[in-house]
Design a protein that fits this description.
With 726 residues, this protein is of the alpha/beta class. The chain is 49% helix and 19% strand. The chain is built from 22 helices and 23 strands. It has a six-stranded antiparallel beta sheet with strand order 8-7-6-11-10-9. A five-stranded parallel beta sheet has the order 2-1-3-4-5, sandwiched between helices. α11 (345-384) packs antiparallel against α12.
């Protein structure tokens, strides 16, 4: 040790003290500083004054024995090492000393320099260990208390979170429920009932604001407080004056919380207070700075609403106000529509069909974006994977036909109410083949889904061999057959048989024709339903139906010069026939090998699209052809990439960009590319596709427009032609 160890010897025998001193002076490893005390009281004083490193305490002392001295010492100094000295080597004394906190003991007769040095060393070490254990225990206790406090805090937080989740669940439940309703009364009923049941308010009502009369009409009052509800809904109280009842702030958009309405001077407040209600919330139903109404909530407890509940009510009223506003708009539009229909039925029908065309135009981009990765990967697999099994290739070809049908449907929705343009070319079509395609495409509906419901639907085909071809568009006729099969399946909720049949015959004019029939054994149609079933938006399926299926079939038949025949009887099923005229000059439906047009040159291309799936799939398929593709996920990134390439002396052989992108669209990308490099071809790849190419709105600075989902052969052909011209 670097300094002497201070030892206090408490012993009334001078001879014994001398023995201890001599033994300590002869210690080999440690230097000791010895302090002496002849009795216990003096020893305790020396402990306070000198703070020894270890105490050697004799058991036999005048006045107080060693055990009593040890007890008093431990009261103030629990961590000063103490070794008990006994003259007789009595184990009972040693046990008592250890029990009171001594670290060690030794018989006076066995004291040697080595033994006393070891006694002191062990005592100091043992005491230090006890002190560390105590400190660690204290630290653990403090940590435990802190942990317990944290647990309490977390439990409070969990309770608050659970309450918040419960309110969010209630908000979601109410929002979903009101979203399914189209009348204010049922919307208000759902809101009031849920607030009374799940938010535990004793009173809830919803009022509509009459701006002209400056009144609130009680549109729905909760039934939890039945007597108050009857009183408020009486003839005299059904309307509340805004000014007289102090509701001005609320109807002007301010959220009002009154924690105590006991002494309110307003009549409405007094009515609530008389019914035992003490705290009140007035929440405005406001949309676009216009007040629709007021939500009123009350509880029998003073200060009954906390801040979180007030925030919840604010959020709820936003949804309720929007729903009520939409219902009011819907009702106004419905009234206007009914009035217009009475005076202009034919014009209204046309406008409704035109609206569908506009909707189709608006959603075409999103649908085609979603189809693009499927179309590209399907085409790439069919083109590049030579080892596909016949079954896998058949599945991929069916998928490809389905994608093309959906794409044609999206592009044609706006046209189903008008005649096909004269310049649209028709090709030879083999109806037997299309019949099988339609059955395959609908298999998931009539086979898998019917088995899930526990019913059996059997779809049979009865095709005439060597059926004459007709002139038409494969995707449109296939789509019509798919619609007819699905309608037949829907008409048989308990199962049955659908028969798809082809045969020759004559049309109503007596000319040779090819007939395709879809017959079911379902419920059949009444005469009234049969007369109206081809009208757009007419449906007998309720909310499950759109009323466009048979109307679309009728439109397709009209564009192909075909006739629709419907034979149906209630309880005996329905047969829908499409009768196609046969060409005057026989033609064959030989299949044309579709070969992708692609130049030998490997191009460096810039691809710009904000849809990550389209971007990834298009890039992958172009790279399979050996092109180098740089991808940009928005218009500005595409412009930056092109400008950087020009400045660095590199160049792109062509730019392929999407049209509809936020902030910087395809038009701006094309204009910037032509400004920086006028000779670089720009291909616009867009969900509006061919309709955009043939309209007056075709963007400038664009060399080619391709529709989505893109066909690899069209894209390769465009790349080859544009780069060849360049």
């Amino acid at each position: 040790m670097s300094s002497a160890v201070k030892i206090l010897i408490i012993d009334d025998s001078p001879d014994d003290q001398l023995i201890y001193r001599r033994a300590l002076s002869k210690a080999a490893d440690t230097k000791y500083e010895v302090i002496e005390a002849e009795d216990g009281d003096r020893g305790l004083e020396r402990v306070e004054a000198d703070r020894p490193d270890c105490v050697l305490l004799d058991y036999s002392l005048p006045g107080r024995n060693g055990i009593e001295v040890l007890k008093r010492l431990r009261q103030k100094h629990p961590y000063i090492p103490v070794a008990m000295l006994t003259g007789q080597g009595n184990e009972t004394v040693a046990v008592a000393a250890m029990h009171e906190g001594a670290q060690n003991y030794i018989s006076k007769s066995s004291i040697t320099p080595t033994s006393i040095e070891r006694l002191i060393s062990v005592s100091i070490e043992h005491c230090g260990m006890q002190k560390r254990i105590h400190e660690q225990r204290a630290s653990l206790e403090a940590a435990n208390k802190s942990l317990e406090a944290e647990i309490v805090t977390r439990r409070h937080a969990e309770k608050a979170t659970e309450a918040q989740l419960e309110r969010l669940s209630l908000l979601h439940h109410i929002t979903r429920a009101i979203g399914e309703r189209q009348d204010i009364d049922s919307i208000f009923q759902v809101v009031v009932r849920n607030l009374e049941d799940r938010l535990s308010v004793e009173f809830a009502c919803l009022c509509l604001y009459d701006r002209t009369e400056e009144t609130l009409r009680l549109a729905r009052v909760g039934l939890k407080n039945d007597g108050l509800a009857r009183e408020l809904l009486s003839a005299d109280a059904a309307r509340l004056s805004v000014k007289e009842n102090g509701l001005n702030r609320c109807v002007h958009g301010e959220f009002v919380y009154e924690p105590d309405i006991s002494d309110s001077a307003f009549p409405f407040h007094r009515t609530l207070a008389h019914a035992g209600l003490k705290s009140l919330v007035l929440a405005p139903l406001q949309v676009e700075n216009q007040n629709v109404g007021v939500l009123i909530l009350a509880r029998t407890k003073l200060h009954g609403f906390n801040e979180d509940e007030c925030d919840f009510v604010r959020q709820l009223t936003e949804h309720v106000a929007l729903a009520a506003h939409h219902v009011q708009l819907y009702e106004a539009l419905q009234q206007a529509y009914d009035k217009l229909r009475q005076t202009q039925q034919a014009v209204m029908q046309h406008e409704r069909l035109r609206a569908v065309g506009q909707m189709a135009s608006g959603i075409a981009h999103d649908i085609n974006n979603a189809l693009s990765p499927v179309a590209l990967y399907t085409q790439a697999l069919l083109d590049s994977e030579r080892n596909l099994s016949p079954r896998a290739r058949g599945y991929l070809e069916t998928t490809q036909r389905a994608i093309e049908d959906v794409a044609h449907t999206v592009a044609r929705l706006r046209d189903f109410y008008r005649q096909r343009e004269v310049q649209s070319a028709l090709a030879p079509v083999q109806l037997n083949q299309l019949t099988q395609h339609a059955v395959d495409l609908t298999r998931a509906r009539w086979f898998d889904m019917s088995q899930q419901r526990g019913v059996v639907i059997d779809v049979k085909t009865d095709v005439m061999p060597e059926l004459p071809v007709v002139m038409g568009t494969e995707s449109e006729i296939r789509e019509a057959l798919v619609n007819l099969i699905l309608n037949a399946v829907d008409a048989m909720p308990d199962g049955g048989t659908v028969t798809v049949r082809t045969k020759t015959g004559h049309n109503k004019e007596g000319k040779r024709a090819v007939r395709v029939e879809v017959a079911d054994t379902g419920a059949g149609m009444s005469e009234e339903t049969r007369r109206h079933c081809l009208e757009p938006f007419f449906t007998t399926k309720g909310e499950r139906g759109t009323g466009l299926g048979l109307a679309m079939v009728y439109g397709i038949a009209q564009r192909h010069g075909a006739q629709i025949e419907i034979d149906s009887e209630v309880g005996k099923g329905t047969t829908v026939s499409m009768v196609f005229p046969t060409p005057e000059t026989p033609v064959s439906a030989s299949e044309k090998a579709e070969q992708a047009v692609a130049g030998d040159a490997k191009l460096r291309l810039l691809l710009v699209d904000d849809d990550p799936l389209v971007l990834q799939s298009l890039r992958a398929t172009l790279e399979i052809d050996g092109h180098t593709v740089i991808a940009a996920n928005d218009g500005q990134s595409g412009i930056d990439a092109f400008r950087s390439a020009v400045e660095s002396g590199e160049k792109f052989d062509a730019v392929i960009t999407d049209l509809g992108m936020p902030h910087v669209d395809g038009r701006k990308v094309a204009a910037t590319v032509k400004q920086l490099s006028p000779k670089t071809p720009v291909v616009l790849l867009t969900g509006w596709g061919q309709s955009l190419a043939t309209s007056d709105d075709a963007p400038a600075h664009v060399d080619a427009i391709l529709g989505k989902p893109p066909k690899l052969r069209d894209l390769r052909k465009a790349m080859g032609e544009l780069c060849k011209a360049q």
